[in-house]
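FAQ: What does the model actually see?

It sees only this:
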Amino acid sequence: MSANGDTDSVLMPSDEIDARAVAWFTDRSESAEWTDRAQAEFDAWLAQSPKHLLAYWRVEAAWNRAGLLGAVRPPRGDRTSGNRRSWSFWFGRSAAVAAVLAIATTATFYLTAERPVTYATPVGGHRLLILADGSRVELNTDTIIQVNKPRHGRQVELIQGEAFFHVKHNVAHSFVVKVGDHRLIDLGTEFFVRKNAARLQVGLVEGRVRLESADGAIHPQSAVLVPGDIAFATADKLSITKKAGRELSDDLGWRNGSLVFHHATLAEAVAEFNRYNDEKFVIADAQVAKLTFSSVFATDGTDAFARVAQKALGLHVERRGEEIVISR
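And it is asked to produce this:
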């Protein structure tokens, strides 16, 4: 399958994957007879690359945020052959493209200014920035970045939080992400960066990126990351592990408003939920914190998570002001 008609003409050539994701989404939404064969082809396309799954999630999330699904798609009983079916299909497809592109309208071309500009998201926030060179930066919850335009390059500093970068590579002008005592130098890349008080985490989706210590570091470090690499760095240590494409996509579920847990401990899940919500979970029992489970929640799904803890894990859940206390 490929994107057809107006879809290809609306999006830039570099966004071909997004165009395909739009085509898949509208086919699944609009088709009165979605066959097993079509589902198999769709699953195969998703499995080809983590980028395909991420693109599809972006389309779905954009559509839902724009509130277009119910307005554009007629009831299945009203679908007939001929002009009505054709009009509905192509109007739906155009609306899907508009929904995806609407995300970009919240951003301007930021690298045109010479002085640094700071952008931030609140707890639970999500923001997309489109830089003047075409690079895109998605900010996760409680994140602060500073965008600079040095005389001979492009530079972003992640001050706190997490961001996903889709960098337009330019041999003449390096794209540098500064994070505390480290910096990442783009070699044609899609990657995410997460910073907390203890360490820096970098995950590479596509391309290559060089992670190195900032100038003057007491313990210099350097490594070139390839797709699937997850790097953890502190002031004096650098370690790299490997993740499969599906696991990497799960780590980026926040781009679709989701938290994905596979055999996670309750402590790990609580730490993630507390990043996205003002109402905080507290685990009152050290043994309870070690319990494991697998599930998917919305980033703001505190009520759903509390129900799972209570009904599936048999725990006691009690709200105390701004805290949700979990115990035996």
